[in-house]
Structure formats: structure tokens, C-alpha cells
Specification:
The protein is built from 5 helices and 7 strands; from the N terminus they run βαβαβαβββαβα. The protein has a single domain (4-149), classed as Alpha/beta knot, CATH 3.40.1280.10. α2 links the parallel β2 and β3. The protein has a 7-stranded parallel β-sheet with strand order 3-2-1-6-4-7-5. Helix content is 32%, strand content 18%. The chain is of the alpha/beta class and 154 residues long.
């Protein structure tokens, strides 16, 4: 079962393009939720994804709730710098969903509070850095999930 990367209202086209390429490389599905801060025809997004877009399993959703209703058995992990457990401290299953918020605001506070047991973070070891790049974060977490569930061999 493939993993799923969920971007809630992404704002920066190259991030989504790079995550699209990541999904094409790993077989993960890419879910775009809500209002996008750019057009799917954006040249910067297309350039970041190169010619891999035909390989991306792309899905669009009006809301996170709509996505979750379509995958009632799905296990969702919510990423946030405000979470208390590291992404390496949990066990992933094939088919898990990794939910990332918009670049400027992250995921809503009420969602993170309601889903605290499924909230994960990537530790940052410098107080001078507020957050990691969205595409880098998606890659870090996705490859940890792949490492846990499959051999990292092509």
C-alpha cells in the first residue's frame, strides 16, 4: 500500500513541485487540500516537478474532512513544530497519511489539539531556525516511513 502526502493549502509552488517529484519517486500519492496559493499550471511548480508529473498520483480535495471521509480506515499523522513526539518515535504502517499545513501557518491549532496522539515533529536543534522547508520535511518523514516498512533498495 502506498503512503500518502497531504498538503493543506500549500502556498509555494516549488515546494509542491518538489513534493510531486518525491511522490513520483516513491509511489506515494499526493493529496492537495483546500485553496491553493497558486495554479496547478504554475511554471515554477511544473519546473520543480520536472517531467515527472505524469507519474504523480495527484488528488484534489475541498477539505481535509472530505479526504478523511473517503479514507475512513486511513491513519493520519499531523506534522507540526508544536507536536511533542518525534517522527522517529512512532511506528508507521503502509498506507499512512502524512498531513502538512501551509508554509506560513502550519496546521490549525484545534486540529493539532484534537489529534495530539497523532501529531509528530522533526526536531530542530537551533533556536535561530523557526521551521524546515516543507518539501524537505515531507521527504524526511516519508523516507523514515519507507525505512520502517520496506527495505530501502530499488
Amino acid at each position: 500500500m502506498p503512503f500518502h502526502i497531504v498538503l493543506v493549502e500549500p502556498e509555494i509552488p516549488p515546494n509542491t513541485g518538489n513534493i510531486g517529484r518525491l511522490c513520483a519517486a516513491t509511489g506515494a500519492h499526493l493529496h492537495l487540500v483546500g485553496k491553493l496559493g497558486f495554479s496547478l499550471d504554475d511554471k515554477y511548480m511544473k519546473r520543480a516537478g520536472l517531467d515527472y508529473w505524469p507519474e504523480v498520483k495527484l488528488h484534489r480535495w475541498d477539505s481535509l474532512q472530505h479526504l478523511q471521509q473517503n479514507f475512513p480506515a486511513g491513519r493520519f499523522w499531523y506534522t507540526s513544530k508544536k507536536a511533542t513526539q518525534s517522527y522517529t518515535a512512532v511506528g508507521y504502517n503502509p498506507g499512512d497519511f502524512f498531513v502538512f499545513g501551509k508554509e506560513t501557518l502550519g496546521l490549525p491549532e484545534d486540529l493539532l489539539a484534537a489529534e495530539a496522539k497523532r501529531a509528530i515533529l522533526i526536531p530542530i536543534f537551533s533556536s535561530a531556525v523557526r521551521s524546515l522547508n516543507l518539501a524537505n520535511s515531507a521527504a524526511i518523514i516519508l523516507y523514515e516511513a519507507i525505512r520502517q516498512t520496506n527495505p530501502l533498495e530499488s
